[in-house]
Design brief:
Blueprint (H helix, E strand, L loop, with lengths): L6 E7 L6 H6 L7 E6 L6 H7 L3 E4 L5 H11 L4 E4 L4 E3 L1 H13 L7 E8 L13 E9 L4 E2 L8 E2 L6 E10 L5 H21 L8 H16 L7 H32 L6
């Protein structure tokens, strides 16, 4: 039988006092340690995290990828589990990870993917049709780590690395309210636009017309938000508007850069 493996859990947070306690409690059964990296919370997040048993470290915000890489460096174990403050491991997932760590079966793959399912504020858990996406969240940092992208915080496995899939899922409570969602999508779309400009990506003008309706259909139909009834209309419109804002802000940046450069020289 393989040796049991200790797992460090890390969470990056800012102003998450209402949610971080639940996130921490959801992973206690398999965590050897829980690290919370806070970036200037003003709502008591650090105190809540400490009361729930986490080791709290302060670090100025540097973007999603860099902040998670900083958190990785604070962990004492090589096996890491990343959790966002608006997420929680289900009891079934916690049991699955605990069993993998105890049996040593964890090392059969250096990267474990997990399904992350939407849970809205009026729900106790994910609906049977809940939209979810798959990410690597349990991994051996000696083989691969989070990227240093300020926007795209994903673990980057080396080419040809073996990926395994956890059977159970995580819950994702990303939307506290419509008002919160509006603030979040405005802030995040700005980061996306800046990232696109940094990488030299241009916007096709037709997307200013097509982005909203196409994104609405993607959310309403492909993500199955239509099954939520009227609430599905709300979240589909908000998703589409976020996508439109990203394009609009990128185009705005192009116009500003063109204006700053001045008129082309006369020949």
């Amino acid at each position: 039988m393989s040796e049991a493996k200790a797992i460090s859990v890390f969470i990056i947070a800012r102003d998450e006092a209402d949610r971080i306690g639940h996130a921490i409690d959801s992973v206690k059964s398999f965590a050897d340690e829980i690290i919370v990296v806070d970036s200037g919370s003003q709502d008591g997040t650090r105190d809540v995290a400490a009361r729930h048993g986490a080791r709290v470290i302060e670090n100025p915000w540097s973007g999603y990828g860099p902040q998670k890489r900083f958190a990785e460096d604070q962990c004492r174990n090589d096996w890491l589990f990343n959790l966002d403050a608006d997420e929680a491991a289900t009891p079934a997932l916690a049991l699955e990870i605990e069993a993998l760590a105890r049996s040593g079966a964890l090392v059969s793959s250096p990267f474990w993917q997990v399904s992350i399912l939407d849970v809205f504020a009026h729900e106790d858990g994910p609906a049977p049709w809940a939209y979810g996406y798959v990410q690597i969240r349990l991994y051996d940092r000696r083989v691969g780590r989070f990227s240093d992208s300020t926007v795209h915080d994903t673990v980057r496995p080396p080419e040809g690395a073996r990926l395994a899939r956890l059977k159970q899922a995580m819950e994702h409570r990303s939307i506290r309210s419509v008002a919160f969602h509006v603030e979040k999508m405005n802030r995040y779309s700005t980061m996306q636009a800046l990232d696109m400009a940094k990488r030299g990506r241009k916007v096709a003008r037709w997307r200013l017309l097509a982005e909203f309706p196409l994104a609405f259909l993607k959310a309403y139909v492909l993500r199955r938000y239509m099954l939520y009834g009227w609430w599905g209309i709300v979240i589909s419109v908000n998703f589409a508007y976020t996508r439109f804002l990203r394009i609009a802000k990128t185009y705005e940046g192009e116009l500003a850069a063109r204006h700053a450069a001045g008129p082309p020289p006369r020949v």
